[in-house]
Amino acid sequence: MRYRKLQLMIFAFCIAISCIVIYHNSSTYYRLQKVLKGRLLQRAVFSNVTYRNVNTVRYNVTTQTPPEQKPTPIPLRGWQQNVQWEPGAELDIYDFLINPVDKCNAGKDNITLLVLIKSAPGNTRRRDAARRTYISGAAKLNVSTRLLFIVGDTKARNERKNIQIEALRHRDILNVGFHDGYYNLTIKLVMGFKWALQFCNNSEFLMSIDDDVMVDIVTLVNDLDALPSKDHFQFVLGSKVEGSKPFRDVESKRYIPKNFYPAKTYPPYSFGHGYVMSRHVVEELYLISREIPATMPFDDVYCGILLDKLSIRIVDRSTWFKDHHPQKKEQDYLKIEVSAQEMEKAWKCLGEDKLTSTWSMCFFCWGMRCIY
């Protein structure tokens, strides 16, 4: 009996060896070996480089993407030449290259409003104009606010040097280590949230504006101070956009392919030139941004998507202003798309003699009439 079992085992072993030899010499074997080697090579390559799955603009770079990580990025012909944009969830992984950590004196007395001014590295003249006008006005009146320019990184050495000089001179530059560009505004948004929560958690509200916007800080802060504490919880104030549709024309600057965002319309969002939100909303937005990928590079739309997920409604800024200032029907807290020259001209027209504690939109808009 034992001899019979041994014979069967030897026979089975011989059959197995024969199958292995035949398979080894087959074309299927070589194809599988090629695939396996390709996978091992791919793992080796990507284990030796830092690959960040975030939305970022790349210039003249071809990047291979492991199919198991995410879909291949789509070249967007209508944006810029040699540009690819990739959706991703990790928007808060960048370093603060220049960080004014004491700007808000976090942990001390509360401030009403932190204003983050989105600026490009080369926009020195715009930043200087803002400093000489409404920023200096807010400082002279001791308004409860802090204003900070947030800029990304640049390859231009002269721009980098200028940013460092500005930061030392004015201490109002937050420089973040990502490539600064129109299609990386979602990174700028989320990194701004991160900085505010870490280094300015004593601010009641955060405002995000462009550097070509002129703001009546005094009137805005006064109105925010008058807002009851119970209304801070889900407060978002902005120029509300509803029913906006994704651009499907590849030649459009705001083109979005269907596989990035398949829905026919965007949820309500605020135009990116200027909006205000409470500290609690900033906390909620920052947390959920780590879970929901930015499927487009537009910070205002992305912020609207996050607000929609949180079921937070946007209060329309013009309506809210009119409710608080019914006598100023044609006015607002800010003017948009104002050049550096126009900003300084309006401020000069306003006049230092009118810069008192009663300074309000009536003077602000009177000054703006000098340029419109």
UniProtKB/TrEMBL annotation:
Q: A biological process (GO) annotation for this entry?
A: protein O-linked glycosylation
Is rRNA processing tagged as a keyword? no
Tell me what topology the record assigns in the membrane: Single-pass type II membrane protein
**E.C. designation(s):** 2.4.1.-
Could you list this entry's UniProt keywords, alphabetically sorted.
Glycosyltransferase, Golgi apparatus, Membrane, Signal-anchor, Transferase, Transmembrane, Transmembrane helix
Transmembrane residues, as ranges?
6-24
Q: Would you identify the family this protein belongs to, as annotated?
A: Belongs to the glycosyltransferase 31 family.
What are the recorded GO MF terms, alphabetically?
Answer: glycosyltransferase activity; hexosyltransferase activity
- This chain belongs to the protein called Hexosyltransferase
Species in which this protein is naturally found? Strongylocentrotus purpuratus (Purple sea urchin)
InterPro entries, per the entry:
Glyco_trans_31 (IPR002659)
What is the enzyme's main class? transferase
